[in-house]
Amino acid sequence: MTVGILGTGYSVPPHIRTNDDPLFDQVKRVVNSKGIAEKDLFTGLRERRYLKDGEQLESLMLDAAQKALSQARVSPAEIDRIYGYASVSPYLTPNALYAIHRDLGLPQHTLVVPINSEFSNFLLSLIQAWEAILAGHCRYALIVCGTNWTRYMDYTQGHALSVGDGAGAVVLGPSTSFTLVDYATQTLSEQYGAMVMQTRPLLLNGRRYLPVDEQNVPLPTYEILLESGIHSFQTAGMEGPPFLIQQLLQKHGLTGENVALLTHQASRLMLDYWAQRIRPKEYLETLERFGNMTMATYPVNLAYFFHQITAEYVVLAAVGVGFHQTTVLLKR
């Protein structure tokens, strides 16, 4: 038996934030000891989607899941497992993936498996679901990943220029198309802590404060450390994915000409460099249209391009905090 993607779906907010949004006026150009500013690393942006106050990430995830189920012609009652993640979820625990189980009306026997591994949540969910189906423990699995990080940014930091909200989903099951072939992964845990989301004191206009919501509860914000974080971006972040991808392609006698490439999309610097190294037949990216949707980028872009892909194989490559990177090979 081969396991493949039967259906895809994505959902993004209708609200668009462009480069001239006043919110980005707060972004500072602070340089590290090597004279490099985080702001200068995040290039090539034009539009991002964002959720307004009162709008919920779960609604995007639910919409994406319903579209994937419809395309796959699989009913909610047939789903044995649901994988994925909502980031940032309303609660520290449980993850809002349980709300998607409820709102889809999935059976009580459906196992909910939240995968907390930003930004590779979707790829690790693919791998886990693939192995579960091959082992005979389930027949159909649903993967749903969504992000609302625009609400959890420190808009004085350069990476805030790139972030957008969105959600994507796929249904996996027995199939002869878009089948999972192999994967490769690398963990560089010595870089643990270089990129983090945490509740932390901020320094603005010479005063320290914690970002708070209307209940005066501290909110977590993402941070790329000025020294170690930028170093990770420029070394493992840039070089790691092409290294892993080339290893995986060589293992199966393939080259970039055989694949459609789908990667993390934080910056034009990264995308252009990876394109030069891999030279794929197609590059499935939406940086100018949707920005950096972090963990949701992979299922959103897969759904966005699903019916346009002409390459025989698809390579998905994720980088993530921790620090880790993973790549998955699919056969169309």
UniProtKB/TrEMBL annotation:
One of its GO terms (biological process) is fatty acid biosynthetic process. It comes from Thermosporothrix hazakensis. Keywords: Acyltransferase, Transferase. The lineage of its organism: Bacteria, Bacillati, Chloroflexota, Ktedonobacteria, Ktedonobacterales. This is 3-oxoacyl-[acyl-carrier-protein] synthase-3. The keyword Protease does not apply. It holds the Pfam family ACP_syn_III_C. GO terms for molecular function: 3-oxoacyl-[acyl-carrier-protein] synthase activity. Residues 249-331 form the Beta-ketoacyl-[acyl-carrier-protein] synthase III C-terminal domain. Residues 116-184 form the Beta-ketoacyl-[acyl-carrier-protein] synthase III N-terminal domain.
